[in-house]
Recover the amino acids of this structure.
């Protein structure tokens, strides 16, 4: 999808009775049953207008595992014919992409400075998020501090919010980053919601109060600022940042393959055109370099790390660059299981849990593994809703339910970390 989002995702087709019917880009779910079918689907993903939503790389397409493909309207007939001819079963997961994008981008409030009510149940372009950051810091200087940690490849600022209670400065710290992959809009929406919820709940909710009184919480709402802007203006399913390097016409590096943790081993790509391109060297991307520098400076106090992604409903922990178990694997597994059980208990939403590599696939160069190897022994990736029914096009009405269930997991884990660290 290369046309501007608000120009045309719909097209009209003529049918026999003389009327016109609108159709849209669609998302297919395909489960290859043979090696030959796997190769056919891998070849489909090489077409520029077809976006691979799940798994994150064609290399991870395997027999009897679901593959989610975003189809440009111009490719629908071709792909359907190809699948039928080869006897490959598929189902349409999202029939009308345009409708969901309109739901995600339409606002009920009067504009970017209408911050009341439904603001936290909407998706927002970057300029609105940055306006919100300035406003909320101005309104709550006793609990929030704005920190500029660096800038993106296209020179957009990278803002971190330091969130604390109103008592003595805590000895411990935790980190939450959102929006490392630009198409995962529910991720920045969670970070925004989390900050506001924490402020509103302080001295009212004992678990939130304990968290803020015992942890300095550093929140990066949008790590991949350039890519996020691009998803709002040009290409909704864009994943990477927008960096450019000599020798290739392809744009972007996968920021979650660029950290110095098993960098560019199996599960990442040296090809700049791939979605999992690892970059020319570890921390080559200014966004990754800024985060790594900041966390290195805070590593003595940093006890807990969360990176927020979508989709899949999973709570993952190291390692993703290796099948080796982390030294405190049993503790991390027990903690992840407890957190997912709490989500099920209160919200009846199922999240799976486990170390990254065996749970999904090898993913070297990830931020959670890097943070763990830095010394942050409680390091987690949370994959938010859903499991593919909407995928990256999660409707706004599901923002708050998603945030509430993930907050339950974060509170469970944070309570454990506060009890077991100094």
């Amino acid at each position: 999808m290369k046309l501007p989002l608000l120009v045309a995702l719909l097209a009209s087709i003529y049918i026999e009775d003389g009327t016109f019917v609108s159709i849209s880009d669609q998302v297919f779910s395909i489960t290859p049953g043979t090696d030959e079918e796997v190769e056919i689907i891998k070849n489909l993903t090489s077409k520029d207008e077809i976006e691979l939503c799940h798994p994150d790389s064609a290399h991870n397409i395997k027999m009897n595992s679901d593959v989610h493909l975003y189809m440009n309207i111009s490719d629908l007939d071709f792909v359907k014919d190809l699948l039928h001819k080869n006897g490959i079963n598929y189902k349409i997961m999202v029939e009308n992409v345009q409708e969901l994008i309109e739901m995600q981008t339409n606002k009920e409030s009067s504009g970017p400075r209408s911050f009341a009510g439904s603001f936290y149940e909407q998706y927002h372009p970057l300029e609105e998020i940055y306006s919100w950051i300035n406003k909320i810091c101005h309104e709550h200087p006793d609990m929030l501090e704005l920190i500029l940690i660096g800038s993106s490849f296209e020179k957009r600022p990278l803002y971190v919010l330091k969130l604390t209670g109103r008592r003595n400065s805590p000895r411990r710290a935790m980190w939450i980053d959102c929006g490392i992959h630009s198409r995962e809009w529910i991720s920045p929406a969670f970070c925004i919601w989390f900050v506001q919820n924490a402020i509103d709940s302080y001295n009212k909710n004992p678990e939130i109060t304990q968290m803020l009184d015992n942890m300095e919480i550093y929140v990066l709402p949008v790590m991949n600022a350039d890519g996020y802007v691009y998803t709002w203006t040009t290409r909704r399913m864009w994943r990477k940042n927008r960096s450019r390097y000599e020798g290739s016409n392809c744009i972007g590096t996968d920021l979650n393959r660029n950290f110095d943790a098993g960098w560019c081993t199996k599960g990442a790509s040296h090809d700049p055109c791939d979605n999992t391109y690892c970059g020319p060297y570890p921390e080559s991307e200014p966004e990754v370099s800024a985060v790594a520098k900041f966390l290195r400076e805070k590593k003595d106090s940093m006890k807990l790390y969360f990176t927020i992604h979508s989709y899949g409903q999973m709570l993952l922990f190291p390692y993703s660059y290796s099948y080796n178990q982390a030294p405190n694997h049993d503790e991390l597994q027990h903690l992840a299981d407890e957190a997912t059980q709490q989500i099920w208990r209160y919200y009846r939403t199922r999240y799976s849990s486990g170390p990254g590599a065996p749970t999904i696939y090898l993913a070297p160069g990830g931020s959670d593994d890097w943070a763990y190897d830095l010394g942050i022994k409680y390091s987690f990736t949370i994959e938010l809703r859903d499991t593919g029914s909407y995928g990256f096009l999660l409707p706004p009405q599901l923002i708050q339910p998603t945030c509430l269930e993930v907050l339950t997991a974060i509170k469970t884990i944070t309570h454990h970390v506060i009890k077991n660290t100094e």
About this structure: The chain is about 35% helix and 20% strand. Confidence is low (pLDDT under 50) at residues 1-22, 109-117. Residues 10 and 235 are 15 Å apart (CA to CA). The longest strand covers residues 302-310.
